């Protein structure tokens, strides 16, 4: 079905699938409890998942690209990720 030879792509996709599964599970938990208080609590816990997955997937991608990018371009990508995290923090 998928002819992907790169193990780094499999790792990145796997983490994204895990993240999506956690999101769906959180939605089901919200529906199960059915109160706004519980839904907000579940959402608060879920807010830790997004940035963590972003950092992990980006790290895997950078490790996979380490032999193809020079150091200056790698630093630019890392600064971009840092700016994204800085921009979305509350």
Give structural notes.
This is DUF2619 domain-containing protein. Keywords: Membrane, Transmembrane, Transmembrane helix. It comes from Effusibacillus lacus. InterPro entries: Uncharacterised_YqhV. Helix 1 (7-33) runs antiparallel to helix 3. The mean pLDDT is 89. The protein starts with 6 loop residues before the first helix and ends with a helix. It has one domain (7-84). Helices cover 81% and strands 0% of the residues. The protein is an all-alpha fold and 90 residues long. The chain is built from four helices and no strands.
List the helices and strands and how they pair.
Layout: H1 7-33, H2 36-46, H3 49-65, H4 71-88
Helix pairs in contact: 1-2, 1-3, 3-4
Helix content: over 70%
Number of domains: 1
- Mean pLDDT score: 89
**Would you list the SSEs in sequence order as H and E?**
HHHH
Major sheet summary line: none
Rg measurement, Å: 17 Å
Shape verdict = flat
Number of helices: 4
Low-confidence stretches: none
Tell me how many strands there are.
0
Q: What class, by secondary structure content? A: mainly alpha
N- and C-termini, Cα separation: 41 Å
Sheet-strand content, in percent, reads under 5%
Organism: Effusibacillus lacus
InterPro entries: Uncharacterised_YqhV
Keywords: Membrane, Transmembrane, Transmembrane helix
Transmembrane segments: 12-33, 45-65, 71-88
Provide tags for this entry.
single chain; mainly alpha; flat; DUF2619 domain-containing protein; transmembrane; membrane; transmembrane helix; Uncharacterised_YqhV
């Amino acid at each position: 079905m998928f002819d992907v030879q790169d193990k780094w792509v499999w790792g990145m996709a796997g983490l994204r699938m895990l993240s999506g599964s956690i999101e769906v599970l959180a939605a089901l938990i919200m529906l199960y409890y059915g109160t706004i208080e519980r839904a907000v609590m579940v959402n608060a816990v879920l807010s830790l998942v997004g940035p963590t997955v972003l950092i992990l997937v980006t790290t895997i991608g950078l490790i996979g690209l380490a032999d193809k990018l020079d150091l200056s371009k790698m630093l630019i990508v890392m600064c971009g990720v840092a700016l994204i995290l800085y921009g979305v923090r509350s």
